[in-house]
Amino acid sequence: MGTLSVSVPDDLKVQMEELDEVNWSAVARKAFEEKVKEVEFVRSIVKKSKLTPQDADEIATKINKSMARKFKGILS
C-alpha cells in the first residue's frame, strides 16, 4: 500500500490528537476514495455530453444566479 503525507493546520492536528479512538488513516482513505469516485463519475458524464463549454458556462451562470436569489431570500 502506498503512503501519502497530508498537511493540516496545527489547531486541527491538536483536535485530531485528542480523538485517539479515530483511525485518521481510514478516514482519509475513505474520503480519497469517495472523491475519486465523484470525479470519475463527473468525467464519465462530461465525456458523453454534447454541451459546449459556452453552454456549460451559461447553465452555470443561471444556476449561480438562482442560488444567489434563493439564499438572499433565506438570509433576508
Descriptive overview:
This protein is mainly alpha-helical and 76 residues long. The protein has one domain. 75% of the residues lie in helices and 0% in strands. It has 3 helices and no strands. It has helices at 10-18, 24-48, 53-75. The chain starts with 9 loop residues before the first helix and ends with a helix. The model has no long low-confidence stretch (mean pLDDT 92).
How would you sum up the major sheet? Answer: none
End-to-end separation in angstroms reads: 51 Å
Overall tally of domains: 1
Which stretches of 5+ consecutive residues score pLDDT under 50?
Answer: none
Roughly what fraction of the amino acids lie in strands? under 5%
Overall pLDDT metric: 92
**Backbone shape:** flat
Percent range of helical residues: over 70%
Order of helices and strands: HHH
* Helix and strand composition category: mainly alpha
Count of runs of 4 or more consecutive helical residues: 3
- Radius of gyration, CA atoms, in whole angstroms: 20 Å
Oligomeric state of this protein: single chain
Please provide the count of β strands.
Answer: 0
